[in-house]
Amino acid sequence: MRAVIQTKYGLPDVLQLMDIEKPVPGNIEVLVKIHASSLNQGNLVLLKGKPFAARFAFGLSKPKYAVPGGDFAGRIEAIGKDVTQFKTGDEVFGDLSSSGWGAFSEYAAVPEHALALKPANLSYEEAAALPMAGVTALQALRDKGNIKLGQKVLIYGASGGVGTFFIQLAKHYGAEVTAVCSQKHKHSIEQHGADYIIDYQGADFSLAPRHYDVIIGVNGFQPLSIYKQALKSGGVFVHVGGSGAQLSRVLLFGPLISKMSSKRFSSFLHRPKQEDLVLLKEIAEEGGIKPVIVRNFMLEDIQEAFHYFNKGHIGGKVIIQISALDENDLHERTP
């Protein structure tokens, strides 16, 4: 089978497409024929080995996982003898970022806890866009932001692959959403349900009369005082991404601000959970979320895909198409 191999840290040219042996699923694993994957910030960290602290998880001198790739969607071709949740032929999606990675390949042996049945109304490409980014948005809003019906939520960095999920999920939970993004993405953000849009190069959101129960920092470099000023009493700021300096300020000063005021500051790191994949499937099938895809690349164009993704400000998800639909997939889609 074809797979992307990474033997050292660096730029996208360290990624090589090679033929390797098809994996054999263990007792509690399923063999998935992968049709699509997607790119996330975590893929860049694994590619570059930066920040250096990430190497303590991924390998100090070289990547410990030869095949990168976290998000995937595909069809189960075989199951281990102790698998109870799935059967051969099931269409599934999932996240391998805590299971040894390996999604940039035509097949992967996946622990059954790392996947869920694919949303019936999404294509493989759309489903592959959902796991890491969708779970990040879900967990940050629900678990860190403690989002509630009628609250006011501001999302700084709302136009990216993660930000668009934040908008849709905040609306799903009944919040009023203000999105901070570039002017060129304004129309797209309106389509996803944002109630108010602020150009990040224009007005200072902290000076607006509106104050927020939850602020999500998906991107940006603002000092914490800006966010603190824009929060309501009892409000919470959740750092998801952005500059290294902003993360350092949250880690250093967030606990102090939280202790000395009625406003809380916290950082967030997504943790793959099967139950959250199942919940995203249900929300997607209800029409509550729809992945925003901006570009599709073939597996053999993986280097070009990373160069494109690394530019930033792209307005949605980048998909890696891995395997073409076979007769079984086409049969499933015949009415």
Essential attributes:
NADPH:quinone reductase; six-stranded parallel beta sheet; alpha/beta; about 325 residues; Quinone Oxidoreductase, Chain A, domain 1; 15 strands; 2 domains; seven-stranded mixed beta sheet
Secondary structure blueprint with pairings:
Layout: E1 2-6, E2 15-19, E3 29-38, H1 41-48, H2 55-58, E4 71-79, E5 91-95, E6 107-111, E7 115-117, H3 124-128, H4 131-144, E8 152-156, H5 163-172, E9 176-181, H6 186-191, E10 196-199, E11 212-217, H7 224-230, E12 231-239, H8 244-260, E13 264-267, H9 274-285, E14 293-298, H10 302-310, E15 317-321, H11 327-332
Helix pairs in contact: 4-5
Main β-sheet: number of strands, strand sense, barrel status? 7 strands, mixed
Quickly count the domains. 2
> What's the CATH class label of the largest domain?
Alpha Beta
Fill in the CATH topology of the largest domain. Quinone Oxidoreductase, Chain A, domain 1
Kindly report the average pLDDT value: 91
Q: Look at the structure and name the CATH superfamily of the largest domain.
A: Medium-chain alcohol dehydrogenases, catalytic domain
Protein name: NADPH:quinone reductase
GO molecular function: oxidoreductase activity; zinc ion binding
Pfam families: ADH_N, ADH_zinc_N_2
InterPro entries: ADH-like_N (IPR013154), ER (IPR020843), GroES-like_sf (IPR011032), NAD(P)-bd_dom_sf (IPR036291), Quin_OxRdtase/zeta-crystal_CS (IPR002364), YIM1/Zinc_Alcohol_DH_Fams (IPR050700)
Description of the structure:
The structure is a single chain. This protein has eleven helices and 15 strands. The chain is α/β, with parallel strands linked by helices and 335 residues long. It has two domains: 2-130 and 291-332, Medium-chain alcohol dehydrogenases, catalytic domain (Quinone Oxidoreductase, Chain A, domain 1, Alpha-Beta Complex); 133-267, NAD(P)-binding Rossmann-like Domain (Rossmann fold). Strands 3, 4, 5, 6, 7, 14 and 15 form a seven-stranded mixed beta sheet that branches. Helix 4 (131-144) crosses helix 5. It comes from Terribacillus aidingensis. This is NADPH:quinone reductase. GO terms for molecular function: oxidoreductase activity; zinc ion binding. Residues 10-320 form the Enoyl reductase (ER) domain.
